[in-house]
Amino acid sequence: MTSHPSSPSVADLFYADGRLKAVPRRAARREALLAHLAATLFEDGRAYREPEVNEALKGVHEDFPALRRHLVTGGFLSRTKDGGAYRRQQRTDAPGGATTAVA
Description:
103 residues, 3 helices, four-stranded mixed beta sheet, alpha+beta, 4 strands
């Protein structure tokens, strides 16, 4: 198995059909999953409306609200103050729990 030493492989978190088995409880595994989801589901520089974010996440796991919340609180997605738009964030190793909001 080949994986980057600083980020555990996320391949074993998914079924063959691309659906997520479960959201990992361990912080390092969850962070690796969130980074993978942000990079594969959301384009840089594009604003997404909440229904678009939900639809993308529904394709991965039925608990899409929890995934959306983890992506925002983990600093992988930013959300406007009114909650109407989301953008992928470039993390510079933001501490866990850091919430990024944009005007």
